[in-house]
Amino acid sequence: MVKRNTSHVPPEQPPVDHHAGRRHKTTNPNTKNTAAHKENRELKVQLNAHVAATQKVILNLALELEKLNPKLQDAEK
Question: Which stretches of sequence are listed as region Disordered (predicted)?
Fold first, then answer.
């Protein structure tokens, strides 16, 4: 049997897993902050919508009251 020269053949190596470092990484502490900030922004939008709706109701009630006020004053006379 003839022995072959294998010095030019690279040794067998397992494939490189480029994601190995990320698999067991702990959660970034800023992730919770980011989620809280997002929720906070959403709640502010909802609150502003409720405030606007409440202001509209108050304005409509004030306009109705202005219409009724002269009628009440006339009724008192």
Answer: 1-41
Question: Does residue 11 register a pLDDT over 80?
Answer: no
For 58-72, the pLDDT digits (tens) are 999 999 999 999 888
Q: What is the pLDDT of residues 41-64, one digit of tens each?
A: 999 999 999 999 999 999 999 999
CA–CA separation, 8 vs 1, rounded Å? 20
Residue whose pair of structure tokens reads 């997002």 in the numeric block: 38
| Residue whose token pair is 């502490």 | 29
Distance CA 37, CA 31 (A): 10
Distance CA 35, CA 57 (A): 33
CA-to-CA distance for 3 and 6, rounded, in angstroms?
A: 9
Residue ranges of the domains in the chain? 35-76
